């Protein structure tokens, strides 16, 4: 077993076994689901590198679409954000 696999298993060790099996099955479906289920590996590695230049602190939205910032249909039936 490689080091990344061990890290993924260690990170998920306290999860409910039945749900963990479902998570691993979903992660095996495609790369998008794999990377979404293992984002902790990226952030752990990022915290241990100085590869990025200094920049101001900011929030990084991981699920950015209009519905998450409060959209609604106005009286004219057009979608508006709030």
Task: Walk me through the topology.
Blueprint: H1 3-11, H2 17-27, H3 31-37, H4 39-47, E1 71-73, E2 79-81
Antiparallel strand pairs: 1-2
The poorly predicted ranges are: none
β-strand amount: 5-15%
Mean pLDDT: 86
What strand line-up does the widest sheet have?
A: 1-2
How does the helix and strand content classify structurally? mainly alpha
Tally of strands: 2
| Cα separation of the termini | 49 Å
Question: Radius of gyration in whole Å, from Cα?
Answer: 18 Å
- Percent helix range: 40-55%
What can you tell me about this protein's structure?
There is one protein chain. The protein has 82 residues and is mostly helical. The chain has a domain at 1-50. Helices cover 44% and strands 7% of the residues. It has four helices and two strands. It has helices at 3-11, 17-27, 31-37, 39-47, and strands at residues 71-73, 79-81. α2 (17-27) crosses α3 (31-37). It is flat and about 60 Å long.
Q: What are the salient characteristics of this protein?
A:
82 residues; mainly alpha; two-stranded antiparallel ribbon; flat
Brief characterization of the structure:
The chain is mainly alpha-helical and 82 residues long.
């Amino acid at each position: 077993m490689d080091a990344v696999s061990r890290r993924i298993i260690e990170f998920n060790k306290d999860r409910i076994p039945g749900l963990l099996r479902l998570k691993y099955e979903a992660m095996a479906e495609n790369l998008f689901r794999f990377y979404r289920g293992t984002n902790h590996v990226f952030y752990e590695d990022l915290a241990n590198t100085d590869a990025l230049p200094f920049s101001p602190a900011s929030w990084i939205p991981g699920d950015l679409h209009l519905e998450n910032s409060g959209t609604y249909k106005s009286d004219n039936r057009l979608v508006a954000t709030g």
